[in-house]
Specification:
13% strand, alpha+beta, 7-stranded antiparallel sheet, elongated
Length: 1885
């Protein structure tokens, strides 16, 4: 029973305490005057009566009523019902009685000084304070008191108030109580059936109507996750109702923070409190709530909820949120569902407000039942007596519900409301309510119905009915009877009398009388129905449907079980094979739990002793299991492992045992206090359960017999047991109760000691001296989850890496001890206080803990000492890489893991085995960075994985942290190379971090040497003295001497070259070798003729090299100039005037231009002095020089840099020519013009038309010199120009295709399709008709019939300098070139696309497109094709872009390659690169960032871009190139590798200065070390057809015109291919060595048939080696057939040429049965067909022939798939047969059964690796052979019956895999010789 009202208070306006118009209220009277003991009088009640402030008003206001809620210090709520009316009073002071801002009386305020009303009205409040919330009853009671007062009813007010204060009603139970206050009134109060359910009236429905579903859900989630919520409304009662409604939907959780439904204006600062709250404020104060940054504001009147930006509300997890919204909308708006129906049902009205209110609450009740289902299974009961103490295991609950990641539930479970929920609803024996029933008995129903909204709605309605019945147990309520004031008193005209002062005594009498009555009355005993709270279905079942179970999990569990049983059965090899699969499986929860269960079965009496290997495996699996556990251990895996880590151990020595816990410490879960608490409570619960089960089994034996079998008691859960005990508790005697309490307390205490030990096990590292790692441990932080315990994951493996002899051991270990003691103490304090351990015991624990820790440290020291003595773990043996001759190891291999990157091929994701991750070592040599190791997956464990790249190609190195499979986060490095390799490694724990730093420093030093002499090309095979040598020499001396001798020798050489070489046509294959020897003789003879007296060069140019001069001339590419007929080196007197060009030596001292070669081709008429002046107009002094001439049209190609942007002034500022005399600016530009005129004058077309520079003259001259096809071809140039310059006009007419044309496609109407990919190909021409900048006519620029003699391709921004000819003799084509920065950035993106460091969301093709690499190629090719077309139509072209060494070089080289077939041969291409790239000064060192100085400029692959363009052309014209694609890849790899000196330094000047230019050919001292890449290629070409293109079938004078659109370009496979079985295949010596090493290691088994298949793995095997292209394959087949027939194998070149010749002479190629006729027919195809290319795979025979480069050419295997024979194509390169006969002679061979021994002539062939036999010595036909690869042994034999009668020692046997051959030599000595020869042949292989 409870009082209906505790206090009645009258509060009035306090006239004496007005401050600046702000009034105050004061309590006039209160009843009773003494506080009740159980409910003290609330303070500050006068503020809450008038929340907006006390003030008087000029007009009477209507009476108002609202209920405010006050919370006292004990968190009890007091409901203050305030009834306010207005009384009239005189206005003695006209000022100060109004509120300063006059908000209530604006008009009065305006006239403040003029008129003041004589009367004002002041508020007076009647307040009822109660602990019960009966709003309507309070409204009626206070209204009645007011009515009695205003209507002067006969009842004394004291009586009414006395009755009100003495009215007592039951709290709950569903009874009806009728009350009367003695004024003829009657009210019926209905008490709710259950007082645990909130009473909401209509407040919830009202709240939803005001704010809407989504807004209320936001508020609901915000309240549960402890945010601040503020309601605004102009109605106080609505504020209270809204707050009440929000609290009602939170049931069964209770709000436990600040709750003030109506906050007075004076207390607004409360809103800036840091704690969460639910507060209501009048809208009047809205402006003052604006600056609140973290408060969610709900405006009830406007229906809005405002959430500040900084506030993040965690919403309900899906699908719950969606389902809740659906259910709510069906309740609130049932018409929504049928709104679209043609015949909507009649009755779809929402329920009445009262019912709707309960339906909404029912939805939330249903929601909570789903959120909290199964919560009782996660309760730990840690004490039963005297009071139950219960804790909730949050991690287990979230883990089983698979909601670990859910922010909302996590916050709710951490909140105070849930803590109160657990303490209130946790006890197992109490009264239950609707929620308990729902969460226990209806979970199944909820789960089945959740997906069907209508069933949910039905359920909701059932729940709503129960809620409604709880509030209104009696539907037929007796009539209320309460008087209201009469209308006249509500609107009084005359003055009302004020509310009287009441007689306190008479009211007190009523109260005392009632109190006395209560004392005498018998106590009302409400029988509380307590019962055991049902737990509901366990959680396990509810989770499986969430799909957390991994696929084929049963199979995985089987693997885990098998592996563990193998370990304990000591089948270590089997276990090792399963290990990776097990480690992968342990990612899944099921497998981890299965693992712990399996291990449990191998523990006997808390101990399991293992041997070292078993221990390692078990620890490794434990670590892997724990690695994926979060710090909360939601699946209980760490909890299950905790007893096991203290059980498994190994013996280290006498009496020293190492337990598994010392190896599994570095997991965050061990440092998480919450984990330890949950574990502790779980164990305590088990022990307490056991405690009571024992007592019951002992004492109540009879009971357990009655229940079906004694075993059934064992199944009782701890909560059920606790419930039973709580029921029995009152029946126990005092002693019994005390004994039970003491027993429980001792149980908890003993567990606390046990846990102090356990925690010290897992928190103290094995090596306590490693405190520096513990500094950041965060043990000082209770909630810390940092991973600080770095210990030996497998003991001993890193023991040596820490210096334990530091001498600070004691101090450090004590530090560790202190932090661990502090952590354990904090834990013990917390759990012991919560579980009621006595203070004495707690003190004892605090004394014990330091001793436990210290003792454990001592034990660990011994273990640590012993573990150091263990042999290190058996890790895979480190494989040594094969090194090149001259390559040396800089750092020995460091053990690392090669981790998978973003490419899927090697990880097994795309099928095939997982080659990565692999374990091995990283080696740093002087030349390369090499990883070599084996995959960790045992299924491919015997394969070798290699990744390597030259150090010089490293573009980026960065530190990363890597998580390997069974390891923890490790230090790692990611290294990218511009040869398209990515090495991503994680260092093994045995590698110290300072060693890693040393490695990085060495790497950096090698990558960026101080000087070019530090590069591998120089350091290989040399001592390092060279570097210093060059600094003291006089540079000028060398140049003077050089220039003095240059002309003399060059003339001589050129004359001799003319004699010896005749015409330079592409050499055919037949005379390739003879030509080579001729060249060599040539060089020798030149050097003999040199006059020694003049060779006084300084040592920088290596005076020892006698071929210097000849080389300069060769280097200056005079050979090429001769071939092109571009001039001679003769002095001016003898110079033939008919030659238009001459070779000028003006730059012989490199004084004009340092980056140009010494000899240049200039017009005959231009003297050297002019050249000096002209050069200053151009950037870097790179003036225009001729580099190629079209043999047909005699048009020339020139190259230069762009003009100086500075214009005229720049002409005088040439840094390179201090001696030049400045001349006038205009004369310079005149000379420039003369120079161009001289070039034009050299063209035959000009000289023929000279003197008549008219339109007609020009055209006729042109027509006469060019073939008729040019008439048609000419307009095409216009189109090309437009394309290059970006003009998008249509060109009328269609054009035929001349030559091989690939780059423009025309639609039928001739409209031009421009590539849409890159719009800014060149500047847009503003319009065709505008006047031209060169002053020419304004007709369409490129379509006029008159064509210029010279086109200057220039950068549009640089074209202001050159004045142009009025007669249109030259013309400028302004284009935009790609900047070097663009190339650099594009390449970076391309590298990332081809070698992503991690898996990216963007696809590969998207990344390639974004890199814009293809559009850059497109641009370069497009300009090149334009220039080719110009030259082919008879106009000369000058490429004058940027500094003349990047894009210019690309364009000029491509133009020559496309126009001149010579450059498409080996010699020609070499010459092209030497001439245009090396001599003309492309800055290889600078662009390749080869030294420290150029490091900052970064890597810019201009040359690679050129090679890629060549590759694109090669793809479109596969029959035009003598070299294969492999040749291009080879160059692309080695131009950045720094293995050769060819591509070092930036110009010939620098090369001469360093003395490296002329040594390449001269030095033959060390044949193993090639200094020039060209020599290397030549040598390789003599041995193997790697670089030869089998489809080479050129047409004479063929000009190529490739398609250049992006859609026609293909991504080069050089960027994407990888062969993990070997390093990149471009260092050929390595390949030969590797092959031989492998063959010696294990001889292949050849018993299988020849067609045996072989599995080919992408990215592991070299596909072109395993599956050679058609032609190599046919040649090999041919060779093996010849061998089988015993014929001498022909050289492949002869075979090839024979077929080619027959093909050419044969009239009908179809009839020829030759194998390659179909291929060679292609040479007869039309241009159109051939420009598309013949569809044959690129002939990369290179990788397929593994020939060593050493002289004897060791035998290697042939790549025919399945063939294990080691015969090779080598014989095809031999000139005489004798070379193939290593040893020969007569042997008797035993025939088959019953056949006699016969003498035969045997030949041992070391090269072919065969033992062949012939009938006689003269016989040319081989009768058979024995493949030595099949030979297993050579042993002495013994004579048989049929054998020839020779000494016994002459016999020997040859045992092969198939049979045994018996031989007999002519005597013992020759038998021994034979055996030795065969043996040596075998060992050589």
């Amino acid at each position: 029973m409870a009082r209906l009202a505790d206090y009645f208070v009258v509060i009035g306006y306090d006239l004496d305490k007005r401050v600046e118009g702000e009034g105050q209220g004061c309590i006039l009277q209160r009843f009773p005057e003494k506080d009740w003991e159980d409910s003290p009088f609330p303070q500050g009640i006068e503020l809450f009566c008038q929340p907006s402030g006390w003030q008087v008003v000029p007009e009477q206001q209507p009476a108002s009523f609202f209920v405010a809620v006050l919370t006292d210090i004990n968190s009890d709520r007091h409901y203050c019902a305030c009834f306010t009316f207005w009384e009239c009073l005189d206005n003695p002071q006209v000022t100060g009685c109004r509120k300063a801002d006059g908000s209530r009386a604006d008009e009065a305020d305006e006239e403040a000084d003029v008129v003041q009303p004589a009367r004002v009205f002041a508020p007076k409040s009647l307040v009822l304070v109660s602990q019960l919330d009966y709003t309507e009853v309070f409204r009626n009671c206070l209204g009645l008191i007011y009515t009695v007062h205003v209507d002067d009813l006969s009842v004394p007010l004291e009586t009414v108030i006395g009755n009100l204060l003495t009215c007592v009603i039951p709290l709950a139970g569903g009874s009806q109580r009728t009350i009367t206050l003695g004024a003829g009134d009657r009210q019926v109060i209905q008490t709710p059936i259950s007082d645990s359910l909130p009473v909401s009236g209509c407040s919830v429905a009202q709240l939803f109507r005001q704010l809407g579903i989504v807004n209320v859900l936001y508020l609901f989630c915000a309240a549960l996750t402890e945010h601040k919520i503020l309601f605004l409304s102009s109605s106080y009662q609505r504020l209270t109702d809204a707050c009440r409604g929000l609290l009602a939907i939170m049931f069964p959780l209770k709000y436990s923070f600040t709750y003030v439904p109506i906050l007075p204006g004076k207390l607004l600062e409360v809103l800036s409190t840091p704690t969460p709250f639910i507060i209501g404020v009048n809208s009047f104060f809205r402006s003052e709530t604006q600056e609140l940054l973290d408060v969610i504001i709900a405006d009830l009147d406007g229906g809005t909820v405002t959430i500040p930006e900084c506030v993040h509300i965690s919403l309900l997890p899906e699908p719950l949120l969606q389902q809740t919204q659906t259910a709510l909308s069906m309740v609130l708006d049932p018409e929504l569902e049928v709104a679209d129906q043609a015949f909507p049902p009649q009755s779809t009205q929402p329920s009445a407000l009262k019912i709707q209110d309960k339906e909404i609450r029912a939805v939330f009740l249903w929601l909570f039942a789903r959120l909290f289902q199964g919560y009782r299974w996660c309760l730990h009961i840690i004490r039963i007596h005297p009071e139950p103490v219960i804790r909730f295991h949050k991690a287990a609950f979230l883990g089983q519900r698979a909601l670990m990641e859910d922010d909302f539930l996590m916050k709710v479970l951490d909140g105070m409301a849930f803590a109160a929920f657990v303490s209130e609803r946790g006890p197992p024996y109490r009264t239950t309510d609707l929620f308990d029933d729902l969460v226990a008995n209806q979970v199944e129903r909820i789960r089945q119905e959740e997906s069907c909204p209508h069933k949910v709605l039905n359920h909701v309605k059932e729940l709503a009915e129960q809620l409604f019945k709880n509030e209104n147990p009696y539907p037929a309520v007796a009539m209320h009877k309460v008087q209201r004031p009469s209308d006249s008193s509500l609107n009084p005209t005359q003055n009302q009398k004020p509310f009287p002062v009441l007689d306190e005594v008479s009211v007190q009498l009523f109260i005392d009388h009632a109190a006395a009555k209560l004392k005498t009355a018998p106590p009302v005993v409400k029988a509380e129905v307590k019962s055991m709270v049902p737990s509901g279905p366990p959680l396990g079942d509810t989770v499986d449907r969430n799909g957390c179970v991994m696929a084929n999990s049963a199979r995985r569990l089987e693997v885990v079980r098998n592996c563990i049983s193998y370990i304990f059965e000591n089948k270590m090899l089997e276990a090792k094979k399963l290990m990776p699969a097990v480690l992968r499986a342990l990612k899944g929860r099921g497998a981890r739990l299965c693992f712990t269960q399996e291990l449990n079965q191998h523990v006997l009496q808390n101990r399991a002793v293992l041997d070292d290997q078993q221990f390692d495996y078990i620890v490794r699996m434990m670590n892997c299991t724990l690695q994926d556990c979060s710090h909360m251990d939601e699946h209980g895996v760490a909890a299950a492992l905790l007893p096991l880590v203290t059980a498994f151990c190994r013996k280290l020595g006498a009496g020293i045992t190492q337990f598994a816990y010392s190896c599994v410490q570095e997991h965050t879960v061990w440092t998480n206090m919450q984990f330890w608490e949950a574990m502790f409570y779980s164990d305590v619960q088990n022990h307490i359960r056991a405690l009571y089960l024992e007592t019951e089994d002992g004492e109540q034996h009879s009971i357990s017999q009655q229940q079906d079998g004694s075993g059934s008691r064992k199944d009782i859960s701890a909560l059920e047991l606790a419930s039973e005990q709580s029921r029995l508790w009152p029946t126990f005697g005092k002693e019994m109760q005390a004994e039970l309490v003491q027993k429980e307390e001792s149980t908890v205490f003993s567990q606390a000691i046990h846990y102090a030990n356990r925690m010290s096990y897992l928190l103290l590292p094995l090596d306590t001296s490693k405190n520096r790692l513990l500094k950041s441990s965060g043990l000082g932080d209770v909630e810390s989850v940092s991973n600080s315990y770095v210990t030996n994951s497998i003991a001993g493996s890193m023991a040596e890496s820490y210096d334990t002899e530091s001498g600070f051991e004691d101090a450090e270990s004590s530090d560790v001890a202190n932090s661990v003691v502090r952590f354990i103490n904090r834990f013990v304090d917390k759990v012991c206080n919560e579980s009621g351990v006595t203070n004495e015991h707690l003190k004892a624990l605090h004394i014990m803990i330091p001793d436990i820790v210290q003792m454990h440290i001592e034990t660990l020291d011994a273990v640590h000492r012993e573990s150091k003595r263990l042999p290190p773990i058996q890790k895979p043996k480190l494989l040594r890489p094969t090194l090149l001759p001259g390559e040396e190891l800089m750092m020995d291999g460091m053990r690392v893991h090669l981790v998978p990157d973003g490419r899927d091929e090697a990880t097994g994701l795309m099928g095939g085995p997982a080659l990565l991750p692999a374990e091995g070592a990283i080696f740093l040599t002087t030349y390369r960075l090499i990883f070599k190791g084996t995959p960790t997956d045992p299924l491919v464990g015997e394969q070798v994985v290699t990744r390597s790249f030259p150090i010089a190609s490293l573009t980026k190195e960065k530190k990363i942290s890597v998580t390997a499979i069974d390891q923890y986060v490790q230090e790692g490095l990611q290294l990218r190379s511009c040869t398209f390799q990515l090495i991503k490694i994680a260092f093994d724990e045995e590698v110290e971090s300072d060693l890693v730093e040393v490695f990085r420093k060495h790497l950096h030093k090698l990558r960026y040497p101080q000087h070019v002499h530090g590069t591998f090309a120089f350091t290989v095979g040399q001592c390092g003295k060279l570097v210093v040598e060059h600094k003291t020499k006089d540079k000028n001396q060398s140049l003077k001497t050089l220039s003095r001798n240059l002309v003399k020798t060059a003339k001589r050489t050129i004359v001799r070259q003319n004699v010896s070489r005749k015409k330079y046509s592409p050499p055919t294959w037949e005379n390739r070798s003879s030509l080579q020897s001729e060249l060599d003789e040539d060089e020798i003879s030149v050097s003999e003729e040199v006059d020694h007296s003049v060779l006084t060069l300084s040592s920088t140019i290596r005076s020892s090299d006698r071929q210097t001069m000849s080389n300069v001339v060769e280097r200056a590419c005079c050979r090429d100039y001769q071939r092109l007929g571009l001039g001679t080196l003769s002095n001016s007197l003898t110079r033939s005037k008919s030659e238009p060009f001459r070779i000028s030596t003006v730059n012989r001292m490199y004084s004009i231009c340092r980056s140009y070669p010494g000899l240049l081709i200039v017009p005959q008429t231009i003297p050297d002095s002019t050249i000096q002046r002209i050069s200053r107009c151009y950037r870097q002094n790179r003036f225009p020089v001729v580099c190629w001439r079209n043999s047909r049209t005699k048009a020339v190609l020139l190259r230069s840099a762009g003009l100086h942007a500075k214009g005229v002034v720049g002409f005088f500022k040439s840094p390179n020519t201090p001696t030049a005399v400045p001349s006038q600016a205009d004369s310079t530009s005149l000379e420039q013009e003369k120079y161009l005129q001289a070039i034009i004058g050299s063209m035959p077309s000009y000289s023929e038309s000279s003197g008549r520079n008219t339109l007609s003259g020009f055209s006729s001259a042109h027509m006469s010199t060019s073939d008729s096809a040019d008439k048609l071809r000419q307009p095409k140039i216009g189109m090309l120009m437009k394309q290059v310059m970006g003009v998008k006009e249509e060109v009328p007419g269609t054009f035929s295709r001349g030559g091989r044309w690939g780059s423009i496609r025309l639609t039928g109407s001739g409209a031009l399709r421009l590539s849409a990919y890159n719009p800014d190909v060149g500047p847009r021409l503003a319009g065709f008709e505008s006047p031209q900048p060169n002053g020419g006519p304004s007709e369409p620029l490129f379509l006029r019939q008159q064509k210029a003699f010279l086109y200057i391709i220039g950068d549009k921004s640089q074209l202001k300098g050159g004045k142009q000819d009025a007669f249109q003799q030259w013309e400028v084509v302004p284009i935009e070139v790609c900047d070097v920065r663009q190339v650099k950035n594009s390449f970076k993106k391309l590298i990332k696309a081809c070698m992503p460091s991690s898996v990216t969301a963007d696809g590969f093709l998207r990344c390639v497109e974004e890199s814009e690499w293809m559009s850059l190629l497109h641009r370069v090719l497009q300009v090149s094709v334009l220039v080719v077309e110009l030259l082919d139509t008879g106009s000369s072209a000058m490429v004058s872009l940027e500094d003349g060494w990047d894009v210019t070089t690309q364009v000029v080289s491509l133009v020559q390659l496309l126009s001149d077939p010579y450059y498409r041969t080996f010699d020609g291409f070499r010459l092209l690169v030497e001439k245009e790239w090396l001599s003309f000064g492309h800055r290889f060192s600078h662009r390749g960032a080869q030294t420290l100085a150029s490091q900052s400029s970064g890597f810019t692959p201009v040359f690679l871009q050129f090679l890629d363009c060549v590759h694109q052309i090669h793809l479109q014209f596969p029959m035009e190139f003598e070299f294969s694609q492999y040749y291009l890849k080879f160059l692309a790899y080695h131009y950045v590798s720094n293995r050769f000196r060819t591509f070092l330094l930036d110009s010939d000047y620098e090369r001469i200065e360093l003395g490296v230019l002329f040594e390449e050919k001269g030095e033959r001292k060390s044949p193993l070390v090639c200094k020039s890449v060209w020599d290397y290629i030549d040598r390789l070409n003599k041995k193997a057809p790697v670089f030869y293109n089998y489809m080479f079938s050129p047409e004479d004078e063929e000009v190529l015109r490739p398609y250049t659109f992006i859609s026609n370009l293909k991504l080069w496979d050089f960027y994407t291919e990888e062969t993990l079985s070997e390093a990149p295949s471009y260092d050929w010596e390595l390949r030969g060595r590797q092959e031989r090493a492998e063959e010696v290691a294990d001889k292949p088994d050849t018993s299988a048939p020849v067609t045996q298949r072989r599995i080919v793995w992408p990215c592991y095997d070299n596909l072109s080696k395993v599956m050679p292209d058609a032609i190599s394959k046919l040649l090999q087949d041919l060779q093996s057939l010849e061998a089988e027939l015993g014929q001498t194998a022909e050289r492949w070149k002869d075979t090839w040429d024979k077929i080619k010749m027959t093909q050419r002479t044969d009239a009908k190629p179809e009839s020829k049965p030759s194998f390659s006729s179909s291929l060679l027919m292609a040479s007869n195809l039309s241009h159109q067909r051939r420009s598309q290319g013949v569809c044959l795979q690129e002939s990369a025979v290179g990788p397929s022939l593994n020939l060593g480069l050493d002289c004897e050419g060791g035998a290697t295997s042939t790549p025919v798939p399945g063939r294990t024979s080691t015969s090779t194509l080598y014989s095809q390169f031999q000139s005489t047969e004798s070379e193939n006969r290593s040893f020969e002679g007569i042997l008797y061979k035993r025939g088959s059964i019953l056949k006699p021994w016969r003498p035969r002539w045997f030949v041992l062939d070391k090269t072919k690796h065969q033992l062949r036999y012939y009938n006689t010595r003269q016989d040319k036909e081989c009768r058979g052979f024995i493949d030595l690869a099949e030979v297993e042994a050579v042993t002495s034999g013994s004579p048989m019956v049929t054998s020839p009668k020779i000494t016994e020692k002459a016999y020997f046997d040859l045992k092969t895999t198939k049979r045994v051959f018996c031989f007999c030599a002519q005597d013992a000595a020759s038998a021994q010789q034979w055996m030795d020869s065969i043996q040596s042949c075998l060992s050589d292989a």
